[in-house]
């Protein structure tokens, strides 16, 4: 059975971008095909929570080859999206910190599919945000259904 949502995001205006894709990538170093975050619809630095948006497009590099005729967003890209969002959240809470890179995954469960044309929202809750490590719980939702959950660990890199 899926865990309950980290917090109630149904009361949020999901159509209102509060942090744009451009603002995210002023902080994160990813480029080209690996820019997985389309923005944030909610971010609370004090509570260490956020809701990021990932628009899954028909023209992405994986669509042609990942299940031809029925393309599915690869689970690894769902997790990469959440990790990028967690890194951005970490930087918002501790702007003096270095870039937090992927350090580990725990308790990963895939609970649904994500197809081109979907809007995936990722709920993040910072569990531990310190100079030497960031730990966030993440849950992905499409059409109010949980499609994945995971605990993401980030480690600083120079």
Task: Describe, in plain words, how this protein is organized in 3D.
- A 7-stranded antiparallel β-sheet has the order 1-2-3-5-6-7-4, covered by helices on one side.
- The protein has helices at residues 21-27, 75-93; strands at residues 19-20, 39-44, 49-55, 99-110, 119-130, 133-142, 145-157.
- The protein starts with 18 loop residues before the first strand and ends with a strand.
- It is α+β, with helices and mostly antiparallel strands and 158 residues long.
- Strand 2 (39-44) and strand 3 form a beta hairpin.
- The longest helix is centred in the middle third of the chain and has 19 residues, at 75-93.
Keyphrases for this structure?
158 residues, alpha+beta, 7-stranded antiparallel sheet, 2 helices, 16% helix, 39% strand, globular
Describe the SSE topology:
Layout: E1 19-20, H1 21-27, E2 39-44, E3 49-55, H2 75-93, E4 99-110, E5 119-130, E6 133-142, E7 145-157
Antiparallel strand pairs: 1-2, 2-3, 3-5, 4-7, 5-6, 6-7
Residue runs with pLDDT of under 50 for 5 or more positions: none
Major sheet, described briefly? Answer: 7 strands, antiparallel
Q: What share of residues is helical?
A: 10-25%
- Rounded to the nearest angstrom, the radius of gyration is 15 Å
| Strand content bin | 35-45%
Arithmetic mean of pLDDT: 96
Helix tally equals 2
Number of strands: 7
Q: Structural class of the secondary elements?
A: alpha+beta
Strand order of the largest sheet: 1-2-3-5-6-7-4
What general form does the structure show?
globular
Please report the distance between the alpha carbons of the first and last residues: 39 Å
What order do the SSEs take from the amino end to the carboxyl end, as H and E?
EHEEHEEEE
């Amino acid at each position: 059975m899926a865990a309950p949502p980290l917090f109630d995001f149904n009361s949020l205006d999901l159509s209102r971008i509060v942090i744009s894709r451009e603002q995210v990538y002023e902080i994160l170093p990813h480029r080209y095909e690996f820019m997985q975050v389309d923005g944030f619809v909610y971010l609370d630095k004090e509570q260490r929570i956020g809701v990021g948006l990932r628009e899954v497009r028909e023209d992405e590099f994986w669509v042609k080859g990942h299940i031809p005729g029925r393309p599915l967003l690869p689970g690894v890209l769902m997790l990469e999206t959440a990790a990028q969002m967690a890194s951005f959240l970490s930087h918002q809470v501790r702007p003096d910190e270095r870039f937090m890179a992927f350090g580990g995954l725990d308790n990963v469960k895939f609970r649904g599919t994500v197809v081109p044309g979907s809007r995936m929202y990722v709920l993040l809750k910072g569990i531990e945000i310190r100079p030497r490590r960031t730990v966030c719980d993440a849950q992905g939702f499409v059409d109010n259904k949980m499609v994945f959950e995971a605990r993401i660990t980030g480690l600083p890199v120079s």
